[in-house]
Amino acid sequence: MLSLLRPLLAVCLYLLLPGGQGWNPPGYNNGFHYQDINGNGNGEIYFNGVRLLVDSPQLLVSAARGSTVTLPCHYHYEPELSAPRRTRVKWSWLPANTIHAPASPEALARETEVMVAMGNRHRSYGSFRGRVRLRRSAPGDMSLVINELQLNDTGRYRCEVIDGLEDESVTVELELRGVVFPYFSQKGRYQFNFFGAQQACQDQEATLATFEQLFTAWEEGLDWCNAGWLADGTVQYPITVPRDGCGGVDIAPGLRSYGQRHRLLYRYDAFCFSASVKGTVYFLNDQAKLNFTEAVQACVSNGSQIAKVGQMYAAWRMMGLDRCDAGWLADGSVRYPITKARANCGPPEPGVRSFGFPPLYLKFGVYCYR
């Protein structure tokens, strides 16, 4: 049997070895000429005459939760071709909580496929299924359109265009416009391990903040002297006014970092990130003061539900919610939002005021979400 296979093996080797004539599918011509005349003698091929270029005019895109966003990506050839070519495009994604540095081979291995397309055929994957498409507004336009933008869609997106043996790509960062807020447990300070912090933020219609989001919040004036988990597993806290007990008076303002901590064993608070909400957060008027159970039912009777902490912060920051009345929220805390500081409404700075977690039998107003 082996003797019968030898002629076939010889033919295959001839076709594959450098200098062999190779094989092309009948009638197939991709318009490019590959050769190893100027190669290094190891059979490496070079792309001769035409270059494929991929770029993006906007490498950082900011958008609001629930909106439709476009991540720009275009490709062209130099010199220009006289006829269109059949190319393949692949969009992939590296979530924000896994980005630590410029793209590395390890990071590329962690990228998740978002969409692949060739001609008029395309396929989307995972949580992006049915929410993404290519814009195709002009020749070479492979911009990705994402509908119903979600909290977890932030991160680094890669647009990769493939033509034969040519493969070029560009990355675009997507961030959400939103607000960072510190969050602690009903049981008190430093009760969350990393996974508990993740869940606590999710329960309040938010996600763990990224380093970039906390840094932006610090630049905007966030000052908080309790350490909290971030999405990358580090523990940090923002200080705008150095003081004893918060890193000391001799250290410049900035983010104080404990670095990476064991995600199961160590316990801290959380820094959550909330983006804009589709509905409306409102104080329920014309109601007597309510205990927590009565407050939950009052919102239901009003055709809504009791608001969550992340929803209140987003409404305060993004929609200008301003109300000098303390009210129950879904986690059992009592808070109220102030955009225009005034007498008898807390500190002189805008913010969401908190009464913490009072006993559930005490009576306050209530904030609902519809």
From TrEMBL:
Compartment(s) where it occurs, according to its Swiss-Prot or TrEMBL record: Secreted, Extracellular space, Extracellular matrix
Major location (coarse): secreted
InterPro entries given for it? Answer: C-type_lectin-like/link_sf, CTDL_fold, Hyaluronan_bind_Proteoglycan, Ig-like_dom, Ig-like_dom_sf, Ig-like_fold, Ig_sub, Ig_V-set
Keyword Signal tagged: yes
User: What GO molecular function annotations does the UniProt record carry, in alphabetical order?
Assistant: hyaluronic acid binding
Judging by the UniProt lineage, the source's domain of life is Eukaryota
- Quick one: signal sequence residues? 1-22
- The residue ranges of the Link domain are 179-274, 279-370
Q: Name one GO biological process term.
A: cell adhesion
Record-annotated Ig-like domain positions: 66-171
What is one GO cellular-component annotation here?
A: synapse
Tell me the keywords, alphabetical order.
Answer: Disulfide bond, Extracellular matrix, Hyaluronic acid, Immunoglobulin domain, Repeat, Secreted, Signal
Disulfide-bonded cysteine pairs: these are: 225-246, 299-368, 324-345
Protein family: Belongs to the HAPLN family.
Specify the protein name.
Hyaluronan and proteoglycan link protein 3
